[in-house]
Amino acid sequence: MVTTVSKMKPSPASFLPLVVDYRQKAAAAGRIPTNFLRRELGPTEREILTSRVIDRSLRPLFPEGYCYETQVICNLLAVDGVNDPVMASINAASAALSLSDIPWNGPVGAVRVGFINNEVVINPTRKEQSESSLNLIVTSTKHNLVVMLEASAENILQQDFLKSIKAGVKECQAIVQAIQQLQKHYGKVKRELELPSPPSEELVQAVKSLCEMRLREIFSDHSHDKLSRDVAVQLVRTDVHEKLNKSVGEPVDSHVFSGVFNQICKETFRSMIFEDNVRCDGRTMGQLRNISCQVDLYKPLHGSSLFQRGQTQVFCTVALDSPDSTLKLDPVTILTSGLKEKNFFLHYEFPPYATKEVGRSGPTGRRELGHGALAEKALRPVVPMDFPFTIRLTSEVLESNGSSSMASVCGGSLALMDAGVPISHPVAGVAVGLVSRYEGTDTKHLEDYHLLTDILGIEDYMGDMDFKLAGTKKGITALQADIKVPGLPLKVIMEAVLQATEAKSAIIDIMNETLSKQRKQKDNWPVIEKLEVPPNKRSKFIGMGGSNLKRLMVETGVQVSHVDENTYTIFAPYQSAMDEAKEMIEKLLASERQPELEFGAIYTAKVVEVRDIGVMVTLYPSMNPTLLHNSQLDQRKVSHPSALGLEVGSELQVKYFGRDPVSGMIRLSRKVLQSPASAAIRNLSGNSNS
């Protein structure tokens, strides 16, 4: 169920205040949440990522100047674990907006595209998706215009990838037509869009005459970096505003002035690219920024790298931990994705100082989650599935001027190789931008356009597209296209894929000069070993309430996990910790030589404790006490050992029946000796009676 609500009055914001919330409730899968309160809490990572996909599919088609607060809520009511709820959510959101009175230039249609056995599969089931080498979401509007793309792939070839995009766009048209028919019969009349009165032509011309030439000088000065260019533009903005106030005699509204200045700034920036075929930093359309790479920066880390491209700098670290550290997923995500846990995950951090801002450090935001998920998708196909450790790759952006998520892919690939993780191929990513000219909202017939390789932050902000593509020399592993105009022709998308593919190959060549293959194991490489513990020593090994294992963890950092009946795995962060832990374990398991007990033999047992359910006895001095249950004390029913006159220090004859195969506890019985028997009575001193 998808609902959409929009306020009737515009907000003062200069951007579209659209909020999309996707919620997958456990009840939809017939489950109960497993948290303490047994109810849905905050949104999960999958819910946030799905919300972002829906948002990016809808946002480009809102009319320019639409500043009404709008909320789209997608509630997953039922899920069968076979068909994809994400595609249903995008299409339902498109239908809800089309039927509403909200001004929107839709509808859009969305399909998921798989690639199985060299064949394109539209909307694969969960089982089919697990066999597919491609997971591509295509959102398209009428006239085969692409609105949004998102993909992860198992190193798919470029020609197969392009074929899948074409097939997906074609299938979307049937959904668009169906929603159009629904809108025709049941849609509400779209409300009149109340746009704020445009600024006077005199004000526009005055601002333009005062700032256009100065802006051209700034954008043509290739010596500027991000900060100096921003400062120069801000100085022009402030100076022009002050001059206008003086010439007019009364203050010009700052909000109106900012809108006019920003529009002139954008038009000037874009027109200079068309006129000169040169970008603001002096590069040609397909040229990369200067790239530098470093690895193994800090010896205690398992792996580290520093990747810098222009003024975008990312520091990546790899931590290898025990298999118990895998990321566990929630029940609904397990049902819809087929994944129970992840042994590789990437965390992306974007602190405010990366853009010289002051901000609050708090929980990970939607943007950080989205960028981290994209970089993780790009690297996941080259990481071995059977790797014995859990891998956490952390990417911290130290400086940002565009495409920090793709820098995280490059830095992450280097950090994994530095850590010795046997990835199949190096991976690189690059962002391609777009500036285009078209009439009104008709993007089907672009008058002119330029694709920009490796975009700056200002080119992303002023441009029409942020097309992020990552992959190896051989193929493509991830794609995310944020399109800011009402759809792009397939021709532009195909050219962007080709241009990005060429750029990522050039980046991999540069990365290979620093590190071309994974290192051998470092001195601080983690260690996993197996340990067999005899059943009779398990309680001594584990300790009361697991106290011995906790002490191992605290004192050495070693983690012990139970595998099966007698087998445990020992994980140590490095070899010296493993050696120290082994010494402690040997002391725990070391004991005096224990007499061998003969199955079926009769021994003299000494009572060391009386309990309600039986007596605790020992057969020899160094033995751990074992329970002789009331049911094995006498042929008669015994409710308490005191009924037989047993007390601490009493001695009695018992028969030994070996150890329990599950618990490892000694099995003894006194009851069987009350019937005629021919077994030998053995004393541990060596004397025997028959």
From TrEMBL:
InterPro entries: ExoRNase_PH_dom1, ExoRNase_PH_dom2, ExoRNase_PH_dom2_sf, KH_dom, KH_dom_type_1, KH_dom_type_1_sf, NA-bd_OB-fold, PNPase. PANTHER family: POLYRIBONUCLEOTIDE NUCLEOTIDYLTRANSFERASE (PTHR11252), POLYRIBONUCLEOTIDE NUCLEOTIDYLTRANSFERASE 1, MITOCHONDRIAL (PTHR11252:SF0). The keyword Transport does not apply. It comes from Dryococelus australis. Keywords: Cytoplasm, Nucleotidyltransferase, RNA-binding, Transferase. SUPFAM superfamilies: Eukaryotic type KH-domain (KH-domain type I) (SSF54791), Nucleic acid-binding proteins (SSF50249), Polynucleotide phosphorylase/guanosine pentaphosphate synthase (PNPase/GPSI), domain 3 (SSF46915), Ribonuclease PH domain 2-like (SSF55666), Ribosomal protein S5 domain 2-like (SSF54211). It is an enzyme of class 2 (transferase). Pfam families: KH_1, PNPase, RNase_PH, RNase_PH_C. NCBIfam families: polynuc_phos, PRK11824.1. SMART domains: KH. Residues 600-671 form the S1 motif domain. This is polyribonucleotide nucleotidyltransferase. Belongs to the polyribonucleotide nucleotidyltransferase family. Its EC number is 2.7.7.8. The keyword Cytoplasm applies.
